[in-house]
Amino acid sequence: MFEELLEDVAQRNGLRETSTWVKLAAGFSAIVLCLLATGYVAPLIIAAILAGAILLLARIDPRTYAELFLLPLWFALLSAAVIILISGGAHVLWSWDPLPFLHLSITRESINTGFFVLCRVIGGMSALLFIALTIPMTDLFAVMRRCRMPDVVIDLSMIIYRTIFFLLDQVRQIHQAQVMRLGYSGWKESVHTFAMLCGAAFIASWDAGDDLVRAMDARCYDGKFALLGESRPAGARSLAALSLFLIAGSAVVIATQGITLLPVA
Amino acid sequence: MSSIVLEARDIRYRYPRGEEAIKGISFHFRRGEKIALVGPNGAGKSTLLQMFNGMIRPDAGTMLFDNRPMEYDRESLRELRRKVGFVLQNPDRQIIAPTVYQDVAFGPTNLGYPEAEVKEAVTTALRHAGLAGFERRPPHQLSGGEKKRVAIAGVLAMDPEVLVFDEPTSGLDPSGSEDLMELLDELNHEGKTVVISTHDVELAYPWADRVILLADGQIIKEDVPDVAFGNPAYVRMAHLSVPTLLELSVELAKRGFAIPDRKPRSVLDMVRIIESQPHGPCCHPEAGTITVCNVDAADHPAIAAWLKARPGTAVGAMGTRAKQCAAAEQLALEFTYGVIDKCILRALRGKASLILTAGSMEVRILDRVAAYERESGIAVTVEKFGEHRD
User: Fold this and answer.
1) In terms of domains, do B104 and B182 share one?
2) Number of domains in chain B
3) ipTM exceeding the 0.90 mark
4) For the segment B48-105, what is each residue's pLDDT rounded down to a tens digit?
5) Is the CB of B86 less than 8 angstroms away from the CB of A218?
6) At B192, which CATH number?
7) Minimal CA separation from A222 to chain B, in Å
8) Where is B146: in which H helix or E strand?
9) B55, B113, B140: which to substitute to probe chain A, counting the most A Cβ within 10 Å?
10) Residue A117 to residues A125, A261, B232, B272, Cα–Cα distance (Å)
11) Same domain, yes or no, for B57 and B205?
12) Are residue B77 and residue B205 in the same domain, yes or no?
């Protein structure tokens, strides 16, 4: 496989050796702080800190990060625009009633709300990306086990994880073979070829499932699957960094509460 | 000879609604043997292999393990599969878990080992397969050769007596194949019976103790490699080709060269045949020394210093650990496969060489050189690293 999957990036990130719990705590507390914040400044600062951690500590390629960030950002911008148009307020800057039941207006208050929501989304997204880019799925299985998730769920997700990459590879190969033989040259052909791709992928997964059962049997399968490797204890440095982040984040949230983009008298 | 570990008595098998794949086959494997099942595609090799660990039950005839007929209830099958480790042709189909550690631990966990024992079994197996440090890697990021090693480690973790490999080198590059065959040799040297299926005659010929030629669900010939591959009629029947070394020795014999009873199985053997001719040996009057260094025991920086003091010494590495050590110490390796033979060849030209090795392979080098000395009457000095300082 030549292209980078998100999972591959996570497997090689610079914070791989840091305890999964510390990273999860950082990610989730960042989300909570963003939700608690009442001013737009705090989420932006939290986003900046997390982006710094991702780029400098986890050493994720900035272009990869930008790409991952921009995609949902467009949705967030769109949503913010809608909020600005419909939420209304007292200080009207511009308004238009195209239909009797539809009032569009831009007000000082709506701009404040829209911008605040956008900043919150940016903060939350940084937190989610921080989790996704620094914690590979394989480490999450151990967390799932600790959280008392049923064994069946963990076993299944482990098998799914393992097979996804295998199937992805197969689908890619079939797709390539189809493209090489001009399978997607026209609209009608594309539909037909895509149907064949789905069929072939189905058969491949069926086969893989069969083989999986056989492979497990050959290795004395007895209903036990999830045995996890060593877990890394939280180091003093990472714990200190986490507490510093929590204290600084809370301080910023408190200090900047109620700050709006445009002053509303 | 040692005891029989696996035996088949007139077994037959027909796939449901399919053709008869195995048409009455009988054979036996002894403990510690290296067996190659050689035949063209569709000869029934894979089907036969799957009978060794009870994945397929023959329709007629009996399979015996340890002189007891195989039983096909759950408990007996578990026991059988622990003792007969099976490595599939496609490692992607064999690797189940999301990380290397979890995959290798799969067998021991299901055998009910306590956690500490599982950990030990996994660590040993990974070290053995040269995969130390790969514990947390997900399999889809590994190369073909590494995946193969993970599959092998997964089987080794159950400490089987017999190892069965279906087309072990398929999909590997030449150096990967050599590495793998070396690993199989190492395992065999530790007392495990190793069975491989292949259609690569060049691979099977020098490696196997015994070859079973298979075609169309039947055994054509079962013998030592030079006999099994030596008869063109059998080879043709099995859609194979005669190994180059064997063909060459036949041609040399036709030209009046004296070919010993034991046919040449390596370049070293071939060189000896050619040099034993009337024009006289062209080897150096005094053979060079071979120094053997066990990287588990030796002081690594001392190796580089030792080499620096002896320019012109070629270095060969046997086994993954030795290769890892060479890479860590930045030693330039001249030989990475067929190391012992290549170093003997070098010694015959009066040149010195150093073999890096690990574990039980050290004994194998001494055995191999001693065997060569016995057969050829030429003395080659083998020294242990660090024991003979000048």
Assistant:
1) yes
2) 2
3) no
4) 999 998 888 999 999 999 999 999 988 888 889 999 999 988 888 888 888 899 889 8
5) yes
6) 3.40.50.300
7) 5
8) helix B144-156
9) B140
10) 12, 12, 81, 84
11) yes
12) yes
